[in-house]
Design brief:
A hairpin with a 2-residue loop joins strand 3 and strand 4. Helix 6 packs across helix 7. The longest helix has 20 residues. The protein starts with a helix and ends in a 5-residue tail after the last helix. A four-stranded mixed beta sheet has the order 1-2-3-4. The protein contains eight helices and four strands. By secondary structure, it is an alpha+beta fold. The protein is globular and about 50 Å long.
Length: 186
Amino acid sequence: MRNAHRERGFGRPGGWQQADLPDPADAPDWFAGRLPADWFTGPVEIEIDRDEIVVVGELPVSGDASTPTATKEGAVARFRESTRPARMQIAEEAQRRYGRSVAWGVRVDGERIVFTHLAVPVMTRLRQPERQVLDTLIDAGVARSRADALAWTVKLAGKHAETWLAELREAMRKVDDLRSEGPTGL
């Protein structure tokens, strides 16, 4: 017999792990108010999932074809070293506030460079046809292991389904909004 709770769709998407986390909806505003104005040109990109907040800003480096690669690499290294104590302090505050790790990155001349960030293990059960896909990627030299093959496959799927995934996320936000506005006391 099937679980009746599953069929009726009780619970929050993402299960208990996500329901227990603080709401990160105001994180972009919090970081905008917390970050020093001279670190980045323009607003920062904030990406949030259940485990991590990634903060990426554009470095004020003249990014044209004549700027040597070494100059750009030096600017990234200088930023990373000179801002480390302040970034660590901001990250600790954000971790207490949002219950997620914080990773930092920069964008220079269109290239995105993320400093140390999480690689979270994810367990899944695969049947033989799915395992054969992963094993084919290993045999072809695309991946070193099933874990690498699965990560590669997820990246590829995400890249090609980006528009669809964005629409799905927006629809889920609308459902959450409707739930929060719904009748009480039922």
